[in-house]
Amino acid sequence: INYNTVKFVASYGKASQIPPSTCPEVSFVGRSNVGKSSIMNKIFNRRNLVKVSSTPGKTANVNFFEADGVHFVDLPGYGFAQRSKGERDRWAQLIGDYFDLDRSFNLVVSLVDIRHDPSKLDHQMIEFLQEGEFPFIVALTKADKLSRNQQAKQTAAIKRQLNVPAKNVIVTSSESGQGIEELREIIEQYCLG
Ligand code: GDP
């Protein structure tokens, strides 16, 4: 995949507005502030293509990008940006409807902050992906904030807690670039076979 060819496609507030898939798709999910925009920008070698977390209260959308015939789907983040029950309900509806669509779910990249034990919402998200049998990997973010020794310990603990096979967990940093090339290669495997 030539990631440098990336361009913004469209933004949708409702799953029903999203046109059917016409190509392989990789979706990104995670808690607000986990580093989702940063990692997507890093994959594309772009500074500001994917906008940093929408401010609380602002409508969270599903944003589509395209590079070399592959769709990259930025799903709204969960967690602290949702202050009200209304916002949480809207997120759950949008995500639930999105994963209910009949589309090319080649790969879901589920982002988890390497520094912390997975939150209740992280557990729920990953259980949802496991139960729905979606192809997914867990990308641990912000690895530069830990030493290599701490990274190894936290990675082992998170794998155990989430009950995800070792080969489906990768350690990344948008700051240092750690794991980014590996992530690009995994995306290619799932999207282009
Ligand atoms: P999003 O809400 O998941 O899209 O998260 P952002 O990409 O906007 O990142 C949230 C904050 O974490 C920002 O202040 C980023 O600069 C910071 N951040 C993101 N990724 C990394 C990383 O790999 N290392 C470090 N040290 N900070 C990061």
From TrEMBL:
GO CC terms of this entry: cytosol
Protein's GO biological process: division septum assembly
GO molecular function list: GTP binding; metal ion binding
Residue stretches making up the EngB-type G domain: 22-193
InterPro entries noted in UniProt: G_ENGB_dom, GTP-bd, GTP-bd_ribosome_bio_YsxC, P-loop_NTPase, Small_GTP-bd
Cofactor(s) listed in the protein's UniProt record: Mg(2+)
Keywords: Cell cycle, Cell division, GTP-binding, Magnesium, Metal-binding, Nucleotide-binding, Septation
Highest taxon of the lineage: Bacteria
Family named by the database record: Belongs to the TRAFAC class TrmE-Era-EngA-EngB-Septin-like GTPase superfamily. EngB GTPase family.
Protein name: Probable GTP-binding protein EngB
